[in-house]
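Sync notes, pocket subgroup
Present: LS, DG
LS reminded everyone that the earlier model was apo-only. Rerun requested with NAP included. Inputs:
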Amino acid sequence: MKNTALITGASSGIGMELARVHASKGGDLVLVARNKAKLDELKSELEAQYKVSVYTIGKDLSAINSAQEVYNETTRQNIQIDYLINNAGFGDFGMFVETDWNKEHQMINLNITTLTQFTKLYLQDMVKRRNGKIMNVASTAAFQPGPTMAVYFATKAFVLSFSEAINNEVSDKGVTVTTLCPGATESGFMDAAAMKESSLFKGKKLPSSKEVAAYGYAAMMKGKTVAIHGLMNYIMANSVRFVPRAWVVLISRKLMEKS
Ligand SMILES: NC(=O)c1ccc[n+]([C@@H]2O[C@H](COP(=O)([O-])OP(=O)(O)OC[C@H]3O[C@@H](n4cnc5c(N)ncnc54)[C@H](OP(=O)(O)O)[C@@H]3O)[C@@H](O)[C@H]2O)c1
């Protein structure tokens, strides 16, 4: 039987590359994002290239209860989800006092609420079967506060904390929960977050989504708890424990500001 992976945010960037990795191993897929046309393009590519079966769902995952609706659809279609990859997410760049609440509200719904609801729904089935893997995509942003992207950093801190805790709870139940923490990566993220001018991205040679996806997928297969992509990112993420908190916030602001 082929393992089926459900991947959110598979119409672009890291999610699209994760779908390609899974299909290349012969696995079936359920792909979810708003842009159904892009998902269907990817479906045609993967079904032709790897002879796998791909089911696409066009859905705004920032809408309340959207995870339940996707779960109901996979149940109706009789599709068992063996791997759940909560990858869809976005950020927003700017001072909190000036940024748009509607965009932030959608971000919190997508990055936190939907991810949590998806995890609950599919984890219950996985635990019953005593088999399954979950990967939640956080970020190196999860390790410190992020002035100029305060809400985004806080959502990713939630993802890391939540996923580590859940992984502990199910460690004897045949299920693993991996948190992937990419650093700045080449994808649609920079445009969606309006942060082309941030020194985090500007003029930098960034790792590709393909490289990050391959790394994350391998970590999920090994059942690694936290997977930080890149040596420098690993060092930075861990160094915050040895530096006074006030300095961490100041350094974080410096790294984020417009170059
Ligand atoms: N790139 C980076 O530098 C970086 C660094 C650390 C962490 N990350 C994280 O990596 C994950 C993937 O991002 P990416 O870099 O691959 O960016 P991306 O290329 O912009 O991809 C984001 C994906 O999320 C989907 N998405 C966004 N809003 C959605 C919504 N309301 N409903 C359903 N799907 C939605 C998008 O699809 P539609 O537009 O079709 O809906 C797209 O497929 C995110 O969680 C991000 O926070 C990225």
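DG: DSSP finds nine helices and seven strands in the chain.
LS: The domain at 4-256 is CATH 3.40.50.720 (Rossmann fold).
Action: DG to write up.
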